[in-house]
Amino acid sequence: MNALELSGIVKRFGPLTALDGVSLAVAAGEVLGLVGENGAGKSTLVSVACGLYSADGGKVRADGRELPPGDPRAAIDAGLGVVYQHFMLVPPLTVWENVILGREPRRLGAIDRRRARSQVSAVARRSGLSLDVDARAGDLSVAAQQRVEIVKQLWRGARVLILDEPTALLSPQEAAALVEIVRALAAEGRAVLFVSHKLREVLGAADRIAVIRRGRLVQVSPRSQTDAQQLAEAMTGGGRAGATRPRRPSRDGAVVLQARELAGLSERGGPGLRGLSLHVRSGEILGVAGVDGNGQTELAEVLTGLRPVQGGLTLDGDPAFHGDPAAARRAGVAHLPEDPRRRALCLPLSVEENLALGRHAQAPYALVFLIDRAGRREMAHKLIEQFDVRPPEPSARTANLSGGNQQKLVAARELSGGSAPRLVVAVHPTRGLDPGATRRVHEALRDARDRGAAVLMISFDLDELRALSDRILVLFEGRSAGEAPPDASDEQLGRMMLGQVPARA
Known about the structure:
This protein is α/β, with parallel strands linked by helices. It folds into three domains: 2-236, Rossmann fold (3-Layer(aba) Sandwich), CATH 3.40.50.300; 252-332 and 422-505, Rossmann fold, CATH 3.40.50; 340-418, no CATH class.
């Protein structure tokens, strides 16, 4: 008997068929990988499984028992637990309070705080997920918040655990450890659905791997009978979706960005940057590596005018903007932010309107003081096609796009929607993107570099950093832990990321 079984699932949103007769099953003790392009239907399938969406056809069964459609409580009671890419924690509450929220153990009518805390601590310890259960969730790094979400589902007795992009924010060592944890959870008898775009990690974690394309299941194969290239081709329908141009040697361009002794506080009030110095030349991509919470967010916000800072900062030799994002944009800074929904998009607006944001007063989006609707629509069609934004409809509401397609929309606007940028600050530019979309964004970043822009790219994905960077700068506790060449090993970069290699001047 399967722990989770989806039979003939159909889901429509108006005229769009998001899922077209998908059947999939996960057995107890098994890890099933689920991969597919952005907009292929993965998130919709997960939402149907856990009762957030009611299917238009088909059935969902847990341990052989049919679940009522569109009933999240029934799915939870049946042992389904989901860890979403966007976390659902209450920042002021502690870790253990977040875990028990809504299902508080009680004694004599009051919350049994001692028992609850002890139980949460025991679950975290058994699962190998290191957590301070008394820490406030809002004070934790993003990676630690993800661990809280996993512990929450385990504490609630999840027998089927659905993980959405679980390694996106982790260092190589942490990602490898999580894969081991996933395998251990399966060995204990849990069923795990591992949804990820990192094919190497899916291959390391899964027993079988399912590929969904344009709402249809196109392949389910044992791990031993496939590889990353074959999976990428199945996701895209053929072609080398992950292929990229070879890196060309960095040109000896002029220094565009110069930062000296940057210092400032983090959002949590602690030191965010501690005397960080760096430079980026024209025609160069500087990759920035580091475990989450070591100054990457603060650095990106300083360079895009979103955060004031102490220290020296110049762009093409001129004193740069401090805490003025409008001035940064006027100076030619393009920004692909860590959180596009919060920093880059107006979700109620259409795709076409979002593509014009920040350039709405310029041609081809405007004609003197009026909106050039024909020019704006033509540019929208061009960018949508170039970056394969789905659905390919300029009038579509941005809030209705998948997270990956929202990310593609921002990349299209910032990298190809206007004049060539002088400095590109890209923060996790392909997080959550499929191989085909990742290739498009990588090509756009290389094109910006080849046109003379200085590119600073922050990423947790070491393969991405190696594929694009001319140099890799590693951050640890807001300082430079040194630089490494693009061919540095996971072990070398991982040790630097954990502060085990002395910082170089």
